[in-house]
Amino acid sequence: MTTSVGSVFSAVLDPVNRHDPYPLYTSLRRTPISREADGTYVVSTFREISALLEDPRVSSAYSPEEGADPHQIVGLPPSFLRQDPPGHDRMRRLAMRPFGPPHTPHRVADLQPTLQKIAAGLVRDFPVSTVDLVDQFAYPLPVSVICALLGVPLEDEPRFRDWIDAALNAVTPNVGALGDLAQYLGDLVDRRTADPGDDMLSAMATDDGPEGRMTRAELVATAILLLIAGHETTVNLIANSALVLLRQPLWLERLLADPSLVVPLVEEVLRYDPPVQMLPWRTALADIPIAGTTIPKGSSITLVLAAANRDPEHFKDPDRFDPDRRIAQHLAFGDGIHYCYGAPLARLEAQMALQAIAPVLARARLLEDPPVYRLSAVLRGPRHLRVALD
Amino acid sequence: MHVVVDLTKCQGYAQCAFLAPSAFQMQGDEALIYDPEPTEEQREQVRRAAAACPVQAIQIDRLATQDMPPIHTAPGAGRIVIVGASLAGLRAAEALREEGYAGSLTLIDDEPHGPYDRPPLSKQALSGKIRPEATGLPRRHDLDAQWRLGVRAVGLDLPIRRVQLSDGSSVPFDRLLIATGVRARPWPDPVEGALDGMFVLRTRDDAVRLQQRLHPGTDRPGRVLVVGAGFTGSEVASTCRSLGLDVTVAEAAATPLAGALGNVIGSIAADMQREHGVDLRCGVTVEAIEGSDGRVRRARLSDGSSLDVDVVVAALGGIRNVEWLEDSGLAVGPWGVACDAGCRAFDVNGLVTDDIFVAGDVARAPNAMFGYQFLALEHWANAVSQAEVAAHNMVSDESNRWPHVHMPKFWSLQFGNNIKSVGVPTFADEVVITQGSVEERRFTAAYGYKGRITGAVAFNHAKWLPFYQRLIEQAAPFPPEFPTVDRPDDMLPVPAEVPDQKLMARDATVVVTGHRPTLVRSIG
Predict the structure, then answer these.
(1) CB contact (8 A) between residue A285 and residue B484
(2) Which end of chain B is less crowded, N or C, counting CB atoms within 10 A of the terminal residue's CB?
(3) Chain A residues with CB inside 8 Å of B434's CB?
């Protein structure tokens, strides 16, 4: 994604603005559909993004303009995230079988006590004086959960963490690291196939539903997606939530007085400061008339979900953080057939995490505000969130 | 606690079924079955589920303090009477209070129960998953209304503004909302209809009776005959099959759901029924039901065959509850009470009234998206939105009235499939499969009339329907010519084969009640 020099969107991508892109989104929304110099169409308003997420003329598959598909280079098919129906639908259904309804309806809800236990354990182990809420809370919680769910040994975390950091956060995708990750997960899939446990990889490798199984390569592609997406975004959701509570102690007091407030509170964080800020890889399969203009066939489309979540046409007083708001229909998890696969898990993890950490936040003081953010303009969250405990 | 899901909005994201699996379950890809009365222990999970719904389709009990300002009723602030206390009547009452209406509010209904939700009756209630009695609609606790339940409205005296009731009393009003809905069409022969084993399904009590007979127990029925393969008949057949009962469906039209979707899509529904073990017979009628000892024993069909049956479910569509208005001077007929786009009733002379409003299944109103023709709709979402518009207009002056601009939508859950439609599929001359695979029962079809898109239906493909709704709103060209994801190789429009209106009276849930679209002629 290159951009026109001086465009609002280029400022969004500029790391210098990472700590607060929201004023830029306000400017961006003045042109709901804007064309960048490289021909990319950037969409920033709620109605238009919703419409495009539900539009079958918009493809999620790799387009030649993006360059080589890293999955293809390492000999894998694209994950379902980067496929269109019917391939997408089949792979997502197969991946859903061991995870959720209708085949495995209790998996996520049954995790609640485990999540509470892990979160309480992390809080208990906090050092006395200062703590990094990212490294010592927001990161370890979802990582241990996704490892247990998928059947990835938690002790391998230092290895795959390096590969994922290299594959995700490099300026150009690091195919070598992706290859190492694929090799690692491929070996794991083979072990689970030979000796299945009650984890999701084992189920996907051995359980024959009405549509059969994924191929080994499809399963590895899916495992890469679920391992990465299964925690990267949740880390940020938990950290962004903790940050807003530290900055707005009124809501922290309300949460401490009424733990059930955590449900609307997490929804409001998802709206107000979503972990996935934009979806950069859609392509128009046809000329698409929208908002008084036309996105020409073949154009690359970037949907800025975080800008839509602050659209005053959809949300009253959108820049105010308000878990009491009645309209809670946000786009943090996308919309349509690619709606976030792991959304229920992310929600429950964040809810349990916040309930566990609220008493700590009540005696915590931010040591750095704004904190240093991750490099990515797509996946938004603080790199560290250091607080002093009184 | 009470829960209702607006299944018109639901697109099968399954977030609720993940987070509260004891209260919400998926059948197949996207058909949602839920418990309308979860226990207090489930409240935490149900709240989580409601908050997570991407389309915000789940309503739970609304407490006065939560959502709305408190109500202070004031004497002399007017008298509003609502006849019909089902979905539309309740929603209108709530909307009136939300609008700040402070006068007296009276709801009248011949059923003794408070407002309940009907769609679960043919599904989770009939299957025994929930009790039919556990279908009460969530409502605000401080409506401050007088409930006259178990008493029927028998007349309307417009000059003196009174509703006459079956107990001989009458209720005065300043403004009236007619929301008397539809009742099940009874079996045409009253002697046969009185046999033990004959059923209809419309009310909660109907569901209790039928559920008791169907449910595996001491006296498990042999074959069930369902007469009529519209939505209710098809859903009853589906539930019976899920209970392991033998089912025959007799349908006069060429296919099931023909009156709602035409024969082309109806033939797919026919395949679905047969795949699930239904003995489906189309193009036949039931000539007689034979009984002995007062019980149903046998059915004789028009094709000369006969069947041994224990239970007959007459799913013959509905009759609009307008008899009580026949001498009122309002414009009433078999399609309901005619009203303008603002829900104000017409009188017999075609003049619009000021204080009489209509909403829900009994209303018949012009729709700008379909050539201003009068539509009669029996759809859940229409009842809700029309009630809200009627309520607003009842307490607003002329300059601030809303039109009821409603895109018709319906859904049906049968045989594990979620069938959803938008627009008016029968206002069509052609239909084309636009996405997906008919063979897999995952597809979208678009309907067109004279070169524009007028309707769409999705089988287990609900997430795509909002796109087609936008095309219908824009009167986009038919057939759609652009490329899409998952487009079939041969996208060939075929005649939609919409049956004539005689049959539509039986099982369509949305009917263009003026002239038929094919009879439209350009003038001059």
Answers:
(1) yes
(2) C
(3) 56
The minimum CA-CA distance between B467 and chain A, rounded to whole Å, is 6
Q: Do B484 and A264 touch (CB under 8 A)?
A: no
Q: What are the chain B neighbours of A116 within 8 Å (beta carbons)?
A: none
Q: Which residues contact B349 (CB under 8 A, 6 or more apart)?
A: none
Please tell me the distance in Å from B181's CA to the nearest CA on chain A.
Answer: 31
The domain of A178 spans: 8-389
Cα separation of A275 and A146, whole Å?
A: 17
CATH number, residue A210: 1.10.630.10
Q: Is the pLDDT of residue B523 over 50?
A: no
Q: What is the pLDDT of residue B508?
A: 63
pLDDT at position B524, please?
31
Asked whether B386 and B374 are in contact (CB, 8 A), the reply is: no
User: Domain for residue A34, yes or no?
Assistant: yes
Among A89, A100, A339, the residue with its CB nearest the CB of B54 is: A339
**CA–CA separation, A260 and A266 (whole Å):** 11
Alpha-carbon gap: B412 to the closest alpha carbon of chain A (Å) = 18
Chain A CB contacts of B55 below 8 Å: 329
Candidates A46, A48, A50, A54: best to mutate against B (most CBs of B within 10 A) is A54
CB B511 within 8 A of CB B376: yes
Q: How many other C-beta atoms can be found within 10 angstroms of the C-beta atom of residue B242?
A: 18
Which residues on chain A are in Cβ contact (under 8 Å) with B67?
Answer: 326
Query: What is the set of domains in chain B, with CATH numbers?
Result: 1-61 (3.30.70.20), 77-183+320-394 (3.50.50.60), 190-317 (3.50.50.60), 409-519 (3.30.390.30)
For residue A159, being part of any structural domain is answered with yes
CB contact under 8 A, A57 and B484: yes
- Give the model's pLDDT for residue B142: 76
Per-residue pLDDT reduced to its tens digit, B332-367: 999 999 999 999 999 999 999 999 999 999 999 998
Of the candidates A101, A327, A329, the beta carbon closest to that of B18 is on A101
Task: Identify residues of B whose CB sits under 8 angstroms from chain A CBs.
Answer: 13-15, 17-21, 25-29, 44-45, 47-48, 51-52, 54-56, 67, 434-437, 442, 463-464, 466-467, 470, 482-487
Alpha helices in B2-98 (DSSP H): 15-19, 43-52, 64-67, 87-98
Instruction: Sheet with B352-358: list strands edge to edge.
Output: B146-149, B104-109, B79-83, B175-178, B352-358, B344-346
Query: Which of B13, B16, B18, B59 is the mutation pick for testing A, counting most A CBs within 10 A?
Result: B18
User: Does the predicted model carry a pTM greater than 0.90?
Assistant: yes
Residue by residue, what is the 3-state secondary structure of A225-292?
Answer: HHHHHHHHHHHHHHHHHHHHHHHCHHHHHHHHHCHHHHHHHHHHHHHHCCCECCEEEEEECCCEEECC
Running DSSP on this structure, what letter comes out for residue B6?
A: -
Please list every residue in chain B whose beta carbon sits closer than 8 Å to the beta carbon of residue A351. Answer: 48
> Which stretches of A14-156 are DSSP H helices?
22-29, 46-53, 70-73, 87-96, 112-124, 140-150
State how many domains chain A has.
1
* DSSP per-residue codes, B264-311: HHHHHHHHHHHHTT-EEEES--EEEEEEETTEEEEEEETTS-EEE-SE
- Flag if B52 and A101 touch (Cβ within 8 Å): no
CB contact under 8 A, B19 and A108: yes
Is residue A2, in this structure, part of any structural domain at all? no
Q: Hey, is the C-beta of A291 within 8 angstroms of any chain B C-beta? A: no
List the single best residue of B26, B48, B67, B444 to mutate versus A (max A Cβ within 10 A).
B48
Tell me if A137 is assigned to some domain.
yes
The dihedral through the CA atoms of B323, B324, B327, B333 has a sign that is: negative
